[in-house]
Amino acid sequence: MKIVEKFFTAQAKAKGGRDGQVTTENNALAVSLSTPKEMGGPGKAGATNPEQLFAAGYAACFEGALGVAARQASVKLDGVTVEAFIGFGKAEDGGYGISADLHINIPGVEQGQAEQLVEAAHGICPYSRATKGNIEVRLTTTTEAA
């Protein structure tokens, strides 16, 4: 899919790989990275990793897409949460890959309608569109009160 009109470009610079640092061009994000112990790294306290950064971006982007889907369906949302779990492991081809599990809670909406909104958001969200057919993405929709 080709972008026909670009509105914004985010920029981040990594130095030192999985055990280095990442900063954005405006310095709003400047974090230390550390490979988790589960992946054979030091798992330094206070440091993050690429999978956590991806999870944060995907969760925020998906909730934004859910807002678009809700507006299109004339549904008012309140108290929505999106929690992203990004898995890392060996892929079928012998390399490494990631998976995504998104847990979306939409309180105050009937379960069927919530699932329809989540499916619509999955079609809107740039992260979902970018990963479609590339990684396994599982969606879990709930409607529990906050």
TrEMBL record:
It comes from the Bacteria. Belongs to the OsmC/Ohr family. InterPro entries: KH_dom-like_a/b, OHR, OsmC/Ohr_fam, OsmC/Ohrsf. This is Peroxiredoxin, Ohr subfamily. It holds the Pfam family OsmC. GO terms for biological process: response to oxidative stress.
